[in-house]
């Protein structure tokens, strides 16, 4: 199965879940309901065409209103029947259960091709550095008015949050972000299947192996390039620093670190532009898109990362405040030249640890991210750098998807759905995560007391 086919199946399944939870579809597809709807439509048509009584002086405007209401009821009943006829449930029934009406199933499928996609195929993007550079001074009158009426967040959403399409192919033409995520999960499922046999698949040992495989937040992506990194000058130090940024920190701190570092990695130091067929050209937009999407989830959809977010919002605010202070103190930076501002960050002297400079009260990760970005850029090979960056973000996405509650994913369907929900459902199909696992100790003891 190709990635496009897999995600199409998942979108259909999520559409069924949405119908079950948020619509009357489970009731509307019963035979009794079909009979009642058809009967109501026939009765309305009979009244409209057959019933003819003297008006007895009824005003014409009253007659017009009654006919308008009757026609409105007819239109609603006809629309409801058409919606039922073209629904997924009826299409499946006509194809599998009724041989005489398969032509009707083909007709409904042909008609659905003209409809919009089941999912928008877009994700929301938020960039921390761009937000800090573009945020107007809070002393401006219109911002103070917006804050007074609790509209500040709405203004930020309109100005700084972008919608990025995902279903288009990457610059290299070799695949999209969805393909990248699919292949990563498929490889993890193959490795896990090789480690598990029939005896351990349902045991606690098997469950622990599954959770270990799903608990990677970037470690596996870094280890897969361990040999290439160690061969570089001071390679062991670089490897330790990069590994500690994902394994030695809380998830929300690691996410902010890698978001800022990913943003700084795209600053070019007089390097040649990547050709469309290189690995860098394919993975760079994937890494950037996932980076800005995960930050959007952390700040604007925190319930999706509630199990892993920690104090992410506090860290984000402190990091933004420190970034604004830094850019305000730089006379070299000219407003509107965002890449120059990022280059100034990379020129900061990071010989001292940021914790000794900022103290313990500030939760900012700005200059820790600068240190990480410098280590990534010193990998020399841009292809290696973006393979590590994109791989880490893929694991962060799957890590978050697996730890988000199923009820939260279902609630998100009413708002249009998210990429993280599609990934969660794909993980369930591949046997990754604890969706179908029965934990030891989950069974309840039942006590029956008989009358003596």
TrEMBL record:
Keywords carried by this UniProt record: Membrane, Transmembrane, Transmembrane helix
Matching InterPro entries: DUF4220, DUF594
Domain DUF4220: 4-131
Bilayer-crossing regions: 32-51, 63-86
Keyword Transmembrane: yes
Keyword Transmembrane appears in the UniProt entry: yes
UniProt feature coiled coil, ranges: none
Official protein name in the record: DUF4220 domain-containing protein
């Amino acid at each position: 199965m190709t990635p496009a086919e897999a995600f199409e199946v998942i979108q259909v399944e999520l559409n069924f879940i949405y119908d079950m939870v948020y619509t009357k579809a489970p009731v509307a597809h019963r035979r009794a309901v079909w009979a009642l709807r058809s009967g109501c439509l026939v009765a309305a048509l009979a009244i409209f065409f057959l019933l003819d009584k003297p008006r007895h002086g009824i005003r014409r405007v009253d007659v017009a209103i009654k006919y308008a209401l009757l026609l409105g009821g007819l239109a609603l009943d006809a629309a409801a029947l058409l919606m039922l006829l073209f629904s997924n449930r009826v299409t499946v029934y006509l194809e599998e259960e009724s041989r005489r009406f398969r032509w009707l199933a083909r007709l409904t499928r042909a008609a659905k091709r003209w409809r919009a996609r089941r999912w928008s195929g877009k994700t929301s993007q938020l960039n921390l550095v761009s937000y800090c550079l573009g945020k107007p001074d809070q002393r401006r009158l219109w911002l103070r008015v917006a804050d007074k009426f609790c509209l500040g967040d709405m203004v930020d959403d309109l100005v700084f949050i972008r919608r990025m399409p995902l279903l288009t192919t990457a610059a290299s033409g070799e695949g999209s972000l969805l393909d990248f995520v699919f292949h990563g999960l498929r490889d993890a499922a193959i490795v896990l299947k090789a480690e598990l046999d029939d005896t351990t698949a349902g045991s606690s040992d098997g469950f622990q192996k599954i959770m270990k495989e799903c608990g990677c937040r970037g470690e596996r992506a870094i280890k897969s390039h361990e040999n290439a990194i160690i061969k570089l000058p001071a390679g062991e130090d670089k490897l330790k620093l990069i590994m500690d940024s994902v394994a030695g920190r809380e998830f929300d701190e690691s996410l902010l670190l890698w978001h800022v570092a990913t943003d700084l990695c795209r600053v070019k130091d007089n390097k040649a532009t990547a050709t469309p067929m290189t690995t860098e050209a394919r993975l760079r937009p994937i890494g950037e898109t996932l980076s800005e999407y995960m930050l959007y989830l952390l700040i604007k959809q925190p319930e999706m990362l509630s199990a892993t977010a920690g104090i992410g919002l506090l860290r984000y605010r402190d990091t933004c405040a420190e970034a604004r202070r830094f850019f305000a103190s730089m006379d070299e930076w000219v407003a509107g030249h965002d890449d120059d501002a990022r280059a100034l960050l990379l020129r900061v002297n990071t010989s001292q640890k940021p914790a000794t400079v900022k103290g313990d009260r500030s939760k900012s990760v700005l200059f820790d991210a600068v240190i990480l970005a410098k280590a990534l850029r010193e990998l020399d090979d841009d292809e290696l750098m973006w393979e590590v960056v994109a791989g880490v973000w893929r694991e962060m996405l799957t890590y978050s998807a697996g730890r988000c509650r199923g009820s939260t994913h279902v609630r998100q369907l009413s708002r249009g759905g998210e990429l993280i929900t599609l990934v969660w459902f794909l993980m369930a199909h591949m046997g990754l995560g604890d969706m179908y696992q029965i934990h030891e100790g989950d069974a309840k003891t039942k006590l029956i007391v008989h009358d003596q």
